[in-house]
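Researcher: Next entry in the queue.
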Amino acid sequence: MAAAAAAAEARVFLEVRRRLQSALLILGDPNEGGLPMDVCITPTSLQMKSPGGCTELWLPAGVRLVPSSCRGLQHVAGDGLHLRLQARAEFCTKPISVFNQSSQAQECCTFYCQSCGEIIIRNRKLLRLLPLPHENWGALVDEWCCHANPFANKPLHPQENDCFTGDCFFLVNLRHDLQQPRPAVAPVETRCLSSENHLKMKPKANTKVICKRCKVMLGETVSSETTKFYMTEIIIQPSERNFPIIPRSQFVQSVIAQCLVELSSARSTFRFTLQGHNGKTYILLWLLNSDSLVIEALESSTSIKKFPLLEDLLKADSSSAWNAVKVLYQPCIKSRNAELASSWESDISVHCLTLPSATCLELLLILSRSNATLPPSLRCMNSFQNLM
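Model: Structure for this entry, 388 residues:
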């Protein structure tokens, strides 16, 4: 298939939906009145020719377009040429996830601060890796028991060689080999722990667990023996392996993306509020889909421009293909969207995730930056901001 469009620069944005076996292709430049450009689409590549040169983009192995299926061809002001095609995406690489990074029981593991690599717990042998029940488990037990609930008011605490996993945190038992200094003891009134970890307590002292090197908040103490580490702050590796250097923004978005995918699959939950450890709501997230593969390129660049939002790189090289989780979001800082946030917080179909407040702000910056890289027509939907 061949087509002609006006564009000063050959920008390419391709989103392939694996489940739908379809693709959205956007070609062109936001500036109007550019030079003529010829576009040629083959099953395995895209080619853009203009007076300034030729740009060719090869699709990843396992991805095929069907050029004859082109439909919905239109020019969108500010974007360029839009068209839809059938696509065949035969592969699906499992994303890197902290949910699986420590999932080998019987191994000695080391807990690291993700931000700086400081060792928090050294050579901890994990004999049991167990998921925690969801926040309404007590009510379900009441429905099933014909007698008094034997688990009432009995929070689940890990033993010395246990690691319990919640929605976005780990629970581990404190031990004398903990490298992390004890939490600060300055008096401060703190809130109850969020409902998803089901540990009900009202500490009267500062419960923050702080990295002694970079001063980042890693988690909170929930009892004299149990510490809660947030998955966005900790990397757990077998002790024989070295600390993996992962860019901070890539790690945060990978953890959040996998968390949303896991929860939406397990609980049919697609709307989320992200709260800080201080109880304030920072972001509203609405998961649209998790089966997208995104490819983007600019003619003026010698390498493919990577798309940096809530994605996992398929390969460690300079591949142009990224798995993407598509979400809508609304920021709630400085009293923005207060009414909408209040409505979501009272809705039982909305799931709450709690992270350090600094990480919530960090994620908001990642979302905003990623949204700005989308073609203008894809940045908003029903007053929400869109991103992939």
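Model: The helical segments are 137-144, 248-267, 338-345, 357-373.
Researcher: Noted, moving on.
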